[in-house]
Amino acid sequence: MFKCIVFIALFAPAVWSYSAGAPKDICLSNDPNVDLFPQHGGVKSQESQIPYTLSGPNKVKGGETVSFTLKGNNNLKFKGFILQGRANGQPVGSFTPKTSSQTIDCKGSKDTVTHKKLENGASTATFDWKAPASKQSVIIFGTVAENGGKFWVKKIQHAIQVE
Fold it and tell me: Across the chain, what does the average pLDDT equal?
């Protein structure tokens, strides 16, 4: 019984400590073990096909604000996510949260969107993204966690051409 209590006390915080959103320190790193990688106590990322999709436009005008929806296939719920638009490896654009989401500042103001208190999970999250003013190719990279022990790192990749 004592061993069980010690195990729970040691490992539960690592799995549940980010239910209010991803921490800023996983935003952007040259280390692939940190970059958009959940810090869930040594749990490995899934290599299988991700059961979530990000829908939104593939072309936008510079400075335009567009809507995106993260959704679980067959209404599969998720308990966490982090998404970031990147051009040439750097965050670009800014997010405005709508449902089940909030922003964090990684390299710039509101350049990353993450979950917000999803104790019971959610099957969709919506948010707006304001494109950078200049023409460029952007990829929105995303990590989605079904739960603390099952997640897909940077498997969401949505290409956008800013014109």
Answer: 81
Q: Sign of the CA dihedral 13, 18, 23, 27?
A: positive
What's the CA gap between 12 and 157, in Å, rounded? 30
Per the DSSP assignment, residues forming a β-bridge with 72 are 52
What pTM was computed for the model?
0.80
The residues pairing with 112 across neighbouring beta strands, listed in sequence order, are 84, 104
Quick one: tokens of 65?
Answer: 């604000």
pLDDT tens for 72-106 read 999 999 998 989 999 998 899 999 988 778 898 88
For 150, residues 6+ apart whose C-beta sits below 8 A from its C-beta are 46
Please report the DSSP string for 34-94 in residue order.
TTT---STTPPPP-SPPSEEEE--SEE-TT-EEEEEEEEGGG--BSEEEEEEEETTEE-SE
